[in-house]
């Protein structure tokens, strides 16, 4: 039978169940489930015995191990986070699908859900008398809880070699052990390495456990968990990783899960755009790099991981699983063949052509290693979208003409140290690359895309965009010019400025282009009303704030990876940039029933949800 019928029915069932818990006029008090942890502590019940599969009366299930705040005492959901999962299980029950037994912990005569809270909730709604469950009983013990914890930590150390891991709940050591076993399986399957459990545990500790705890410590979130320690928080983050991965149907990895968890804790502590996960010092940055590396290996296929590693060995460049490059290598055949037919061909052709230039240009070639030059040309091709049909030799010639010659021409003879030459070259090159990325928009607006022309046209107004070496911030000049142009088009610029200052100044030229389009469609009055209301709604949404903070942090993380210390080479991503991206993406990709573009009247919360699903913020 078509399950879509039951899915439609599930929506009504969910709403009916919620309504039943509110009573007359919604004044009924909703009591929480019992917390297994609290009862366990009070009863000192830490020794357990496995009872196997049993039929357990629903009336005996009174609490939860982890989810006791998500449901009331009758297992009615307390928030909409669980809605989709609840509806799926309702559909499964109605379609008579085979659902696995729930897992229950028993203390005395009461049962607590370890796994299967949503199944119990649906069973309660459907008035089931009992459910099939896998039961583990916890017996009151004469041993003090801290003695049990100490004993478990010693066992954990003996098995893993990892010292001084104290958890508030001795039962949680098995969670850490399971996590390490998963890591062992990953090494065996993904990396094809034969490694014993203890060696894998040491590797896991160094590359996952310690880096996550560095992020926890540096961001000072322990103060929000007075009854927990840093190792407990690590387990909370593992739960969050599982939740995020299940919600997005994709492994979100350790890095993004940790950052998102910290963002949400900080938002709960103080709702502010700037109160987010900080990745500022070298130790935190290195910790994040370790987590990101593991995530790449977990998320990408074995074949992609091997290609990335071979490319690094061949070129000395970490391409970070660049999708375009991976596809390029797959088309050619092998990394070795790509190295000979692409990498060597491009670099040799560059040096051959550049060496024939006048001495004032060619003498600088000694400062640039082969892999550095390839990296420049590769990024140039990305900016220009020269991957489909562009001849590699033409790309090299264009790079020499459009970038290399122009930058070297700006150097004077006083610059001679290698490090300073490379530093200045890359800073100016980033300005050219920025122009290439927004070239299409500038052309559409009838504006020049030439570096020198932009400087000349704005010479009287750009001294504040000139750094101490005498080089200009092209990006800053263009954004500032577009900002002033936007204000000139408003009858009430002060109203927009209040919003602009409250939610962060834009760091993207494209944002003003998108706001211009919105202004043209709506008119000034509707535009100002919409942007003000939309941003307020977004700011009050925990999920949207978390999504924005993630994009902002990833931007800053990439800045730090590139060691972009100069103000004009660092990317900046404001809440208004995020808003403009959502509007633009939804308008360009979402379709109505007639396959036409949607209008801007759709609720911004729905737009952001669509953007999150399609744009995949958490990759």
TrEMBL record:
Domain DUF4032 span(s) in chain numbering: 176-264
Organism this protein belongs to: Pseudoleptotrichia goodfellowii F0264
Protein name, UniProt field: DUF4032 domain-containing protein
InterPro entries reported for this sequence: DUF4032, ParB/Sulfiredoxin_sf
């Amino acid at each position: 039978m078509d399950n879509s019928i039951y899915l439609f029915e599930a929506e009504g069932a969910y709403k009916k169940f919620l309504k039943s818990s509110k009573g007359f006029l919604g004044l009924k008090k909703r009591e929480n489930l019992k917390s297994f942890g609290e009862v366990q502590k009070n009863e000192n019940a830490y020794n357990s015995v496995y009872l196997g599969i049993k039929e357990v009366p629903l009336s005996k299930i009174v609490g939860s191990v982890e989810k006791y705040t998500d449901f009331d005492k009758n297992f009615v959901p307390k928030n909409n986070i669980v809605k989709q999962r609840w509806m799926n299980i309702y559909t499964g029950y109605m379609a008579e699908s085979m659902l696995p037994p729930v897992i229950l912990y028993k203390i005395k005569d009461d049962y607590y859900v370890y796994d299967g809270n949503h199944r119990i909730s649906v069973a309660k709604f459907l008035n089931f008398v009992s459910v099939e469950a896998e039961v583990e009983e916890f017996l009151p013990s004469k041993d003090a809880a801290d003695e049990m914890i100490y004993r478990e930590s010693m066992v954990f150390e003996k098995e893993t070699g990892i010292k001084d891991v104290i958890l508030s709940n001795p039962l949680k050591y098995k969670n850490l052990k399971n996590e390490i076993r998963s890591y062992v399986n990953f090494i065996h399957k993904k990396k094809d390495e034969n490694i014993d459990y203890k060696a894998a545990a040491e590797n896991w500790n160094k590359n996952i456990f310690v880096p996550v705890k560095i992020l926890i410590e540096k961001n000072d979130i322990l103060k929000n968990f007075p009854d927990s320690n840093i190792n407990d928080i690590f387990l909370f983050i593992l739960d969050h990783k599982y939740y995020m991965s299940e919600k997005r149907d994709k492994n979100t990895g350790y890095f993004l899960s940790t950052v998102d968890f910290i963002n949400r804790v900080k938002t709960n502590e103080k709702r502010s755009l700037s109160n987010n996960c900080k990745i500022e010092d070298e130790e935190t940055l290195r910790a994040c790099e370790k987590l990101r590396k593991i995530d790449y290996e977990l998320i990408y296929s074995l074949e992609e991981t091997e290609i990335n590693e071979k490319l690094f060995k061949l070129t000395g460049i970490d391409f970070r699983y660049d999708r375009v490059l991976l596809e390029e290598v797959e088309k050619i055949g092998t990394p070795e063949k790509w190295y000979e037919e692409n990498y060597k061909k491009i670099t040799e052709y560059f040096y051959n052509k550049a060496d024939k230039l006048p001495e004032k240009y060619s003498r600088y070639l000694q400062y640039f290693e082969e892999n550095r030059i390839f990296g420049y040309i590769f990024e140039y091709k990305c900016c220009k979208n020269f991957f489909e049909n562009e001849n590699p030799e033409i790309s090299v010639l264009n790079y020499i003409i459009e970038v290399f010659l122009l930058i070297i021409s700006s150097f004077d003879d006083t610059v001679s140290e290698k490090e300073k030459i490379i530093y200045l070259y890359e800073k100016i090159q980033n300005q050219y690359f920025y122009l290439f990325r927004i070239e299409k928009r500038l052309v559409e607006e009838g504006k020049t895309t030439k570096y020198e022309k932009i400087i000349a046209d704005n010479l009287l107004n750009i001294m504040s965009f000139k750094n101490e070496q005498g080089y200009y911030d092209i990006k800053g000049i263009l954004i500032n010019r577009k900002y002033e142009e936007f204000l000139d088009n408003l009858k009430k610029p002060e109203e927009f400025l209040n919003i602009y200052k409250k939610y962060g100044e834009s760091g993207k030229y494209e944002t003003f282009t998108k706001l211009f389009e919105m202004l043209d469609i709506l008119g000034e009055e509707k535009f100002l009303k919409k942007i003000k209301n939309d941003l307020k709604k977004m700011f009050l949404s925990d999920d949207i704030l978390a999504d924005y903070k993630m994009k902002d942090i990833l931007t800053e993380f990439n800045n730090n990876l590139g060691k972009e210390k100069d103000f004009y080479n660092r990317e900046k991503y404001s809440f208004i940039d995020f808003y403009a991206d959502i509007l633009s993406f939804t308008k360009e990709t979402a379709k109505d029933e007639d396959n036409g573009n949607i209008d801007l009247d759709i609720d911004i919360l729905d737009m952001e949800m669509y953007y999150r699903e399609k744009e995949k913020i958490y990759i």
